[in-house]
Amino acid sequence: MRGPDAAVFAALAALLLCAAPARADDVDPKQKELDELYQAVDKLEQRIGELEKQGSSAPVGSSGAAAWADRVRISGSANLAYLDGAEYGLFSHGSLKLYDTRLFVDADLARDVHVGEATAIRDAGFTFEWNLYRIGYLQNNVGDVYVDLRGLGDQDWANLQVGRFQIPFGENYLRFGRGYPTDPFVALSAPPPWFWDEGVKLWGKALEGKASYAFSWTDGENAIGNVSNGSSQVSLKLAADPWEWLHLSVSGLRSGTIGSDTSPAMAAVWLGEMFPRAFGTGASVPSFYRGLAIAPGPNKLDGITILGGDAIFKLPDARLWLSYGGARINSAGIGTYDRDLLYWLAELVVQLRMISPQLAPLYVAARASGLGTYNANEGYLLDLRYSNVGYNMSALNVYALALGWPIGEFLTVKAEYAFQKIALVHGVTGDIREDASNGNFFGMEVGVHF
Fold first, then answer.
1. Cα-only R_g, the chain
2. In 316-425, where do the E strands start and end?
3. Cα angle, residue 19 at apex, residues 13 and 24 outer, rounded to 5°
4. Which residues have a Cβ under 8 Å from the Cβ of 123 and sit 6 or more positions away?
5. Cα torsion through 222, 225, 229, 235, rounded to 10
6. 12 in a structural domain
7. 419 and 440 in contact (C-beta within 8 Å)?
8. In angstroms, rounded to a whole number, what is the distance separating the alpha carbons of residues 205 and 184?
9. CB atoms within 10 A of CB 329
10. Long-range CB contacts for residues 263-266, cutoff 8 Å, separation at least 24
11. b or e along 73-108 (b: 16 or more beta carbons within 10 Å of the residue's beta carbon)?
């Protein structure tokens, strides 16, 4: 054995001879290090849990783990429109104006709220909407403002909103407020009911989302926070999605007495661009009934009942929406002032990629809709902007075509041509008939939403 190999062998032998058998009660140094490491990890996990708990309970604006910026989201939409139309129409003089502009604030208030071991609320939030412009007029008022409690008792069918919200009736209300950018048209809203009111709303889903409901109980007055007579309004919407391509819903609404002896009634629900109100108010011309002029009706309404149904067919590269319903407006006076209104709608939106991929993402839309008594003896003010026609409109039918170009995710350009056909009751004067001349208009809109 030569030098290097002998040296290595001697070193190994010395180590083996010096090594003494370990006693059973000796502590392995490596095991001791592992135990200390495990203890350190346990302490670290406990500390992380404490910090997460502190963060989830920290108030918005605190310097804790969950800062206010992580809990609050600001969004909005702004739409600039040019509208020009016939001499006696709504847009007789071409003008460029802000048409619909609003701001939203959403705040995350809490998540996974427990009472003992049970989940009481999955999450709680707050929503605020600043309604700046609508249909080209400065509003500067409140739209949505409510607290939203979801997953009560950890159930999909139990959710609660408290505050001011859009009345859950049909499908039209989904295109107002936050949903405005989803409307493929520019200027004219559809006639089915919609509007905000203050109260409580219960809603939820069942059968894996194929069935849903929404129930609301609100104060029933148009003005915010004004309950002049203690009336209330209830609504119920039942919906089903039996297949991915079909959505069905039926809705009902009932309000109590509205208005007072000194304050004309103004309901908290809209049909197109009017809301049920005391007969004769808001008009600058006399009202005609069965061919004769009549005096304005009483300030009070004894109640409003609305029933309607909607069907939405979601086809490949197309969407068809059908809606039909009726509204019963009962005056506190004689039957002369009672009105039965019908509304209807048929709307088709087609993505042009159906024709050629080169046309994506352009779309075309066609809509026919109507609102009225469809009775030549009984009229109503079917659009508040036609005060010079007054309660003498038996029908307001609108036919429109639109072309849209979504430019990216947050910008859309639209163009629309529409024709309005107004039918009048018997006996109206020549001036009223002239102001109700059928009017067409052209509009373009640039819309931003974020």
1. 33
2. 318-331, 339-351, 363-372, 393-407, 411-424
3. 150
4. 108, 109, 110, 111, 112, 150, 151
5. 60
6. no
7. yes
8. 28
9. 24
10. 263/228, 263/299, 264/299, 265/299, 265/300, 265/301, 266/221, 266/222, 266/223
11. eeebbbbbbbbbbeebbbbeeeeeeebbbbebbbeb
Residue with tokens 């600058």: 284
CA distance 417 to 112: 50
Helix (H) or strand (E) holding 387: none
Residue type, 343: Y
Distance CA(313)–CA(244), nearest Å, equals 9
Give the whole-angstrom CA distance, residue 274 versus residue 270: 6
Please report, for the domain that includes residue 274, its CATH number. Answer: 2.40.160.10
* Domain count of the fold of the chain: 1
For the segment 210-264, what is each residue's pLDDT rounded down to a tens digit? 999 999 999 887 766 555 555 799 999 999 999 999 999 999 999 988 888 888 8
Torsion angle in degrees (nearest 10) through CA of 321, 324, 330, 331: 60
Distance, C-alpha 198 to centroid of its chain: 15
Note the pLDDT tens digit of each residue in 18-72: 444 444 444 465 566 666 666 766 766 666 666 555 554 444 444 444 577 789 9
Q: Which domain holds residue 88?
A: 74-449
Where do runs of H (alpha helix) occur along 24-166?
Answer: 29-57, 68-71
Regions of the chain with pLDDT less than 50 = 1-27, 56-65
Inside any domain, residue 44: no
- Confirm whether 67 is domain-assigned: no
Dihedral sign, Cα of residue 180, residue 182, residue 183, residue 187? positive
Number of Cβ atoms within 10 Å of the Cβ of 15:
9
Residue 213 near residue 203 (C-beta atoms within 8 A) = yes
Give the residues across from 142 on adjacent strands: 130
